Amino acid sequence: MAQIIDVLVEGGKANAGPPIGSTLGPLGVNVVDIVAKINELTAPLNGMQVPVKIHINDDKSFSLEVGTPPVSALIKKELNLEKGSGEAGKHRVGDLTKDQARNVAKAKFGSDDSAFVNQVTGTARSMGITVGQGAVTEEEEKAWEEEKAAAEAAAEAAEAAKVAEAGEAEAPEGGEAEEEAPKEEAAPAEENKQEEKQ
Questions:
Q1: For 53-79, how does the pLDDT look when each residue is reduced to its tens digit (9 = 90+)?
Q2: Contact 64/20 with Cβ under 8 angstroms?
Q3: How distant, in Å, are the alpha carbons of 106, 140, 173, 195 from that of 186?
Q4: In the structure, what pLDDT confidence band is assigned to residue 169 with cuts at 50, 70 and 90?
Q5: Helix H or strand E encompassing 136
Q6: Could you tell me the domains of the chain?
Q7: Do the Cβ atoms of 77 and 113 come closer than 8 Å?
Q8: Which residues touch 57 (CB under 8 Å, ≥6 apart)?
Q9: Strand order in the sheet with 3-10
Q10: Across-strand partners of 4?
């Protein structure tokens, strides 16, 4: 009975180290040959995370099933982006043309049917990427940087106010400090009285 092992590799850059080597080593298969074949098949997807199913047969032969990268990885490659926006809906980092959205749908799903294009569009929006609105302008980027700086300054001011408020709450009031001082002085006086009695 064949065993199936799922791995996620960077296109064209798999190696015999963990997790592939440590998973395949105990099965007695030629790990170097499997890694070489994975790299050969995933080379066109260089720089993207690619799911691969490794089928190990009883006679130690193998076959590979290369999946497609996630839609988000295909979008990033299409736009030459390293990452999406950390604040989708507020900060736009790119724009896919309608043709690019169809290309991503074809690459992922094998079809540019409107349902698949809509799925690509939804993923793009969740990454802070619009579809068909035009490239991000310098003015947009400058406005975002200013808004971000203002938000960070407001957060720092709020934190400083919170720390100052906490400091005031912990400081003892004058009356309480005065009450504690006589109690400390009274204790030695009682010890002196007990010594005099002895």
A1: 999 888 888 999 988 888 998 899 888
A2: no
A3: 88, 71, 21, 15
A4: low
A5: none
A6: 3-66 (3.30.1550.10), 71-136 (1.10.10.250)
A7: no
A8: 2, 63
A9: 3-10, 49-56, 62-66
A10: 55
